[in-house]
Model the fold of this input.
Amino acid sequence: MFGELEALLLHPEVVNRKIVLLSIVGAFRRGKSFFLDYCLRFLYANYASIKNPSNLINADNWIGAAETPLEGFTWRSGTQRDTTGIIFWSDVFLTGDRAILIVDSQGLFDNETSTADNSKIFSLVTLMTSIEILNLQGLIQEDHLQYLQFATEYGKFMTSPGQEHKPFQNFVFLLRDWNNPDEYPFGFDGGQKYLENTLVVKPHHPEELKSVRTYLKSSFEKLSCCLLPYPGKTVARDSNYDGRWASMDEEFLDELKILISSLLKSENLTTKKINGIEVNGKQANEYFQQYITIFQSNSSIQPQSIYETTIDKFLTALVLQCFQIYKNHVNQTVGNINNETEITNVLHSSRNAALSTYDGERKMGNAEHIQKYRNDLDAKMNNDSIEWIAIAMARIAKIREEQRRAAEAAREAERLRLEKENQERLARERAEQAAREQAEREAEAARQAEILRQQQAAIAAEQERQRLAEEQRQREIAEQQRIEAERAAEEARRQQQQHHGRRRKKCSVM
Ligand SMILES: Nc1nc2c(ncn2[C@@H]2O[C@H](COP(=O)(O)OP(=O)(O)OP(=O)(O)O)[C@@H](O)[C@H]2O)c(=O)[nH]1
Ligand SMILES: [Mg+2]
Done:
């Protein structure tokens, strides 16, 4: 049962929804499973479920076709008991923020099961249920009420001073084969009147039944009773009957439809509450598992031990919730811690936030319980704070180390900057120097070139002058030669002329 129940309650569609748990208990072989199967028809027609997320069945005709055989929880005719133990329907119905689980249970008051086991089944179902149907045939008998003793005993703890909440929610006496409709008519109205008369405390009642009657109202938020007619011979006796409603007596069918529609309509689906607080799938799973473990391991269950377990679960959950407030607070602020004073302040305010939530929440148990779990919360926070202080101190040390490193890095960066600046300055100066030297070299080269040019020009001028002088000298030489040639020619001419003269004279002398 553990695994199946856990899988249902922790299903993603269920885990955060509030739980409605409808169960049926009561005498064996009295149509419990049969009744639940008609409930399933209504539920599938009216609500989505985890296995059937979009229900397409016509809700107005939830009862289905007249000839359709009945399916769901196994049921059968005869005297041999059918359902054993506690069985959860393998699907969960969903409506708004609620999830509906259906529980069938083994028939009580049979010859095979001991009173202790009957009582265990009844008690466990009662603890887990928010709508519990006690299925009985005919009248409510005194021995039926004894099964409610656990619930009422448990209720006594819950109604002790300081506990204002009823431990259980809806309890429905469902009386089958009612054959006094003239006195008490079928349905809830007749049932309510019958119940009120039955629960009156009378002097002849044994003490425990007086106690049951006295505490029943303070144990359940709502007590009701519904009277159903005899379903007809086929339903009651035919060993081949397949559950179709075509074979039911009309009166029974009408009352069945009214009962189921009323029981399961959305506004009547009471959620499971523990200490007056609605529980979701996750929380229900924790409580239920605890209960199941106790019921499996103990032969006789004392309401006190269940009560204490519930207190423990409840206050432990509250302590965890408050501790989480403290944890969130310190974790959120750890990033802002810069010094030791802030550590003290954060721890103080976080601790106060958690404790004031604990003090302000509705709680279960007496003052002693409440103080004990408060001390636990305090101790838990103190333990955690040791670790947290170490984290915060490490953070401060880290901040300081980072600051030191940052300063060092800044110094180093400044040194590097200056060094770079210096190097740049030197490079600049060297470049300027080189440029200057280059310019000087270029100027010198230009000057040398100019000198060279001037020298070359002077040489050229000199050469030109010499050439001209040479030319002049040549010309003068040539002139001289010409003059001398002319003179020689003149001389020659003159000598010639002289020669000629002397010859003519000789001739004439002759
Ligand atoms: N007399 C009578 N019989 C009914 C009624 N409803 C169903 N039955 C018949 O009762 C027989 C037993 O039905 P189940 O649903 O198996 O009964 P149960 O209470 O679940 O039985 P266990 O699981 O063995 O405890 C079947 O033959 C049903 O047809 C009813 O209102 N009155
Ligand atoms: Mg059954």
In short: The chain has a mean pLDDT of 87. The first strand starts at residue 18 and ends at 26. The radius of gyration is 60 Å.
